[in-house]
Write a structure and sequence with these properties.
It holds the Pfam family Aldose_epim. This protein has 337 residues and is mostly beta strands. The protein is 4% helix and 45% strand. The chain has three helices and 28 strands. It has helices spanning 60-64, 225-230, 310-313; strands at residues 2-3, 6-13, 16-23, 26-31, 37-43, 48-49, 73-74, 79-81, 84-87, 90-93, 103-105, 115-121, 126-134, 148-157, 160-169, 175-176, 180-181, 185-186, 198-202, 204-210, 216-221, 243-248, 256-261, 266-271, 278-282, 290-296, 317-318, 323-334. Strands 12-13-14-15-28-24-23-19 form an eight-stranded antiparallel beta sheet, with no helix packed on it. A six-stranded antiparallel beta sheet has the order 1-2-3-4-5-6, with no helix packed on it. It has a six-stranded antiparallel beta sheet with strand order 18-26-25-22-20-21, with no helix packed on it. The protein is globular, with a radius of gyration of 19 Å.
């Protein structure tokens, strides 16, 4: 389907079926069968690749480890102590899938197939819509027995890549609405530069202390000198190994991450919206290859946290018939112009 310079069509990414979007110099690829993962976002004219990809010759790696490529959907996100999920007077039990900590990790949606609802193009953009409909009989209804639909719409245009997530409670009781994206940003994104050429800024606030099981202790830790730079003028994303949990602290009404190539002035902006009250930032042991600025609605292990308000920890309820919606965008500006 083609309109002007905007195109959407069925193709492949390695051995997997993919929906491919094109708009001017931009190209994006989604793999519906593995978590509805938007695995690739590139400026093909400039040779920029903004997301960490397995590469089409190694696409099977996405299936083996879907949480570290592209934009994986985490629902519910991060860790839950002993797999316990208290909600409205009941305790649900999620499977223990992180043996080292005895926790449940990252929910269910990032590795199962999503249904393609539609894809197409018009004079302004190309787009794809995928969804997950959860009812009795769904693979994970037995763990969290709520009836809902999660819908993802990705749009590619001259304004970059927009993500719109919609969650609809179609059941008869309130449900937990805990969501994050384990977005894997490639740095360097320009093959002519090196990791040392990059600085990252993020709208972090306070840092939570995590225990040996990577669960919050309830204490707040002072930010280091480098973390203060992270929230102000920027710092190299690999200044030390990071697997850190922060509150978000929007600046000028925006909640975002910016990654700047200091050689060229090109800045990748990840504007995530203010529904995400927390950030996780993980850089794969300072790998110099990619890092994950993860917008997250809730505090890690939120259902098991006491002494704080639900609003503060992001333990958000979605009432029957209620629709939650949030938009995020990835785009590039040049600060040197």
């Amino acid at each position: 389907m083609v309109q002007d310079t905007h195109t959407a069509y069925e193709g492949t990414y390695g051995s997997f079926a993919a929906i491919i979007l094109k708009s001017g110099p931009y190209e994006a690829k989604m793999i519906p069968e593995i978590g509805g993962n938007l695995v690739s976002f590139r400026d093909v004219e400039r040779g920029h690749s903004y997301l960490r990809e397995p590469g089409e010759d190694h696409a099977e790696e996405l299936k083996e480890n879907p949480g570290v490529f592209g934009i994986p959907v985490l629902f519910p996100p991060n860790r839950f102590e002993d797999g316990k999920f208290p909600w409205n007077g009941k305790v649900y039990h999620l499977p223990i899938n992180e043996e080292a900590t005895g926790n449940h990790l990252h929910g269910f949606m990032h590795y199962i197939p999503w249904q393609v609802v539609s894809f197409g193009a018009n004079e302004q953009e190309s787009f794809v819509v995928v969804e997950q409909i959860v009812r009795e009989g769904h693979e994970f209804y037995k763990y969290l027995p709520f009836e809902y639909t999660i819908r993802l719409r990705y749009t590619l245009s001259g304004l970059g890549l927009q993500q719109q997530v919609t969650i609809i409670n179609e059941g008869k009781e309130s449900m937990p609405n805990l969501l994050a994206f384990h977005t894997a940003i490639k740095a360097p994104f320009d093959e002519t530069s090196e990791a040392a050429d990059y600085k990252v800024k993020a709208t972090i606030g306070q840092r939570y202390e995590l225990n040996g099981r990577s669960l919050p202790t309830g204490n707040i830790q002072p930010l280091s000198k480098e973390e203060e730079l992270l929230k102000t003028e920027g710092v190299n994303p690999y200044f030390e190994a990071m697997d850190n949990h922060y509150t978000s602290e929007p600046q000028n009404g925006r909640n975002y991450m910016e990654l700047t190539n200091t050689k060229t002035g090109d800045t990748l902006v990840y504007d995530v919206g203010t529904s995400y009250k927390h950030w996780m930032i993980w850089n794969n042991n300072a790998s110099n290859q990619f890092f994950c600025p993860e917008p997250q609605m809730n505090l890690v292990n939120a259902p098991n946290v006491t002494g704080k308000s639900n609003e503060e920890i992001g333990l958000i309820a979605l009432e029957p018939g209620t629709v939650f919606e949030q938009a995020s965008r990835l785009y590039v500006v040049n600060r040197s112009l």
